[in-house]
UniProtKB/TrEMBL annotation:
Gene name as annotated: Egln3
Protein name, UniProt field: hypoxia-inducible factor-proline dioxygenase
SMART domains, alphabetized: P4Hc (SM00702)
One example of a Gene Ontology biological process annotation: cellular response to hypoxia
Keywords: Dioxygenase, Iron, Metal-binding, Nucleus, Oxidoreductase, Vitamin C
Subcellular location: Nucleus
EC numbers, comma separated: 1.14.11.29
Residues of the Fe2OG dioxygenase domain: 116-205
Length: 205
């Protein structure tokens, strides 16, 4: 796996000069061309295989309907992985880079100092208008601080395919639309500062 592209990245500089200021100023940020095409393709192929082999299950709702799948509210299919599973070397590499980025943010995330993360959630919206209604990842203070999303959609045309992640930053007069394009890494606060939705997808996302 040709990792030269990644190893040249100054992750600490990116964390301190871009990720931290953006999180404080607007509550989210994204990095494009994060892994590069070759490594990104390895991640994509592994996720495609999970999808093809039927390893993904319907996403469940939290809150009062906890554990219930209601596809008109949440239409994704998911699988939680640690990255140590057989054939997941590229995913493991991606998770390690994200871990390093967050680690370099260190004590500069306000009241947060992130020491660990959950497993990674592989998610697929199978098209047919599936999405995820407006919600907050961590509405109840369960410990989650930052949500990181790595997108795998090649040749994605949001005007045709939909699937935009729309963020409604708390107290702001605007919304932020993030297109789910290949090799884009997105960070945002997981708490009530960032309600967000996945708009209906009309292709496999």
């Amino acid at each position: 796996m040709p990792l030269g592209h990644i190893m040249r990245l100054d992750l600490e500089r990116i964390a301190l000069e871009y990720v931290v200021p953006c999180l404080h100023d607007i509550g989210f940020c994204y990095l494009d061309n994060f892994l590069g095409e070759v490594v990104g393709d390895r991640v994509l192929e592994r996720v495609k295989r999970m999808h093809r082999d039927g390893e993904l299950a319907d996403g469940q709702l939290a809150g009062p309907s906890r554990g219930v799948a209601k596809r008109h509210l949440r239409g994704d299919q998911i699988k939680w992985i640690g990255g140590t599973e057989e054939g997941c070397e590229a995913i493991s590499f991606l998770l390690a880079l994200i871990d390093r980025l967050v680690m370099y943010c260190g004590s500069r995330l306000g009241k947060y100092y992130v020491k660990e993360r959950s497993k990674a959630m592989v998610a697929c919206y199978p098209g047919n208008g599936t999405g995820y209604v407006r919600h907050v990842d961590n509405p109840n203070g369960d410990g989650r601080c930052i949500t990181c999303i790595y997108y795998l959609n090649k040749n994605w045309d949001s005007k045709l395919h939909g699937g935009i992640l729309r963020i409604f930053p708390e107290g702001k007069s605007y919304v932020a639309d993030v297109e789910p394009i290949f090799d884009r890494l997105l960070f945002f606060w997981s708490d009530r500062r960032n309600p967000h939705e996945v708009q209906p997808s009309y292709a496999t996302r």
